[in-house]
């Protein structure tokens, strides 16, 4: 089975985290943490920085590994690595999403969010009190 290495980032600002509604591709309409496939020769961190620049036009500041999960989608094994991150900039629009929502982990599944992320969202919920205070941009 083909293995796809994917990274996603939980951007935390003002004690909220960002989720985004996909506007292209197979899973159009689904909500996700922004990110994408890791390209050849890139580290996962580099891939996430690139994806946030490409899609949201912002530079990430801090980046910490949170958790990972494995899921089968369309006969491909998706290996999803999740980071929490901060930025000095606030995203206003996305080239890959039709909607940007600031929410809290307990409300993520009020949206049509990827089932593959359930374990990641649970980890985020457990760590949330600590994380939302830690992930402030460094000026
Ligand atoms: N970005 C992101 N992808 C996720 C999440 N959960 C989840 O199952 N996925 C899956 C959906 C896709 O199968 C895959 C990401 O692939 P993608 O198509 O968005 O990657 P990409 O931005 O590099 O797109 P492309 O250039 O190949 O078109 O990971 C998540 O929270 N964020």
Description:
This protein has 139 residues and is an alpha+beta fold. The protein has one domain: Alpha-Beta Complex (Nucleoside Triphosphate Pyrophosphohydrolase). Helix content is 22%, strand content 41%. It is built from two helices and seven strands; from the N terminus they run ββββαβββα. Strands 1, 2, 3, 4, 5, 6 and 7 form a seven-stranded mixed sheet that branches. The protein is globular, with a radius of gyration of 14 Å. The model has no long low-confidence stretch (mean pLDDT 95). The chain binds 8-OXO-2'-deoxyguanosine-5'-triphosphate (8DG). The site of 8-OXO-2'-deoxyguanosine-5'-triphosphate has 17 residues, from strand 1, strand 4, strand 5 and strand 6. Keywords: DNA damage, DNA repair, DNA replication, Hydrolase, Magnesium, Metal-binding, Mutator protein. One of its GO terms (biological process) is DNA replication. It comes from Faecalicoccus acidiformans.
CATH-level-4 superfamily name: Nucleoside Triphosphate Pyrophosphohydrolase
Tell me the number of strands. Answer: 7
Radius of gyration: 14 Å
Find the structural class using helix and strand composition.
alpha+beta
The helix tally amounts to 2
List the secondary-structure elements in sequence, H or E: EEEEHEEEH
CATH architecture name: Alpha-Beta Complex
Query: Which regions contain 5 or more consecutive residues with pLDDT less than 50?
Result: none
Summarize the structure.
Its EC number is 3.6.1.55. Helices cover 22% and strands 41% of the residues.
């Amino acid at each position: 089975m083909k293995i796809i290495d994917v990274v996603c980032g939980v951007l935390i600002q003002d004690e909220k985290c960002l989720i985004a509604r996909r506007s292209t591709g197979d899973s159009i309409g689904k909500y996700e943490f922004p990110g994408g496939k890791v390209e050849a020769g890139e580290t996962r961190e580099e891939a996430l920085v690139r994806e946030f620049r490409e899609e949201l036009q912002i530079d990430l500041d801090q980046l910490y590994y949170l958790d990972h999960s494995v899921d089968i989608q369309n006969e491909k094994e998706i290996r999803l690595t999740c980071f929490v991150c901060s930025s000095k900039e606030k995203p206003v629009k996305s080239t890959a999403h039709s909607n940007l929502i600031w929410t809290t982990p307990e409300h993520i599944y009020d949206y049509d969010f990827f089932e593959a992320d359930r374990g990641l969202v649970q980890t985020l919920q457990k760590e949330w009190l600590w994380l939302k205070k830690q992930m402030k941009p460094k000026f």
